[in-house]
Amino acid sequence: MEIQTVQHEGQTIEPIEPAPLVTNRFLFVDIAALRAKQLRRGARPRIDQVSEHHPALHKAERVAMEEVRRQKVQYDLPPAKPLVPSEPAA
Fold it and tell me: Could you give the number of structural domains in the chain?
């Protein structure tokens, strides 16, 4: 899984379409963790740091979770692995 960001002349450009809604909590955590890593390494946040629901979003993890919740983080999933039938018990 890789988070897609668009860079143009040193500026991050937000994607045109919102990201797909994340309904799986484990996928949500993975995407937010990767985005938090990007934020800690200097990526610019895609949301305002202050909102009426969350007065102070300071930590990269909180900002990343809010970005994923608002569908601001693009992601792609690897193709599903084919199921291998199990051998019958002898």
Answer: 1
Per-residue pLDDT tens digits of the chain, which is 90 residues long = 555 565 656 666 655 678 888 989 999 999 999 999 999 999 999 888 765 666 666 789 999 999 999 999 999 888 988 888 877 766
| Structural domain harbouring 43 | 2-76
Contact 66, 57 (CB under 8 A): yes
Whether residue 33 is contained in a domain is answered as: yes
Query: Model pTM?
Result: 0.66
DSSP 3-46: EE-EEETTEEE--SSPPPP---HHHHHHHHHHHHHHHHTTPPPS
Q: Coil, strand or helix: which one is 76?
A: strand
Q: Write out the two tokens for 53.
A: 């629901």
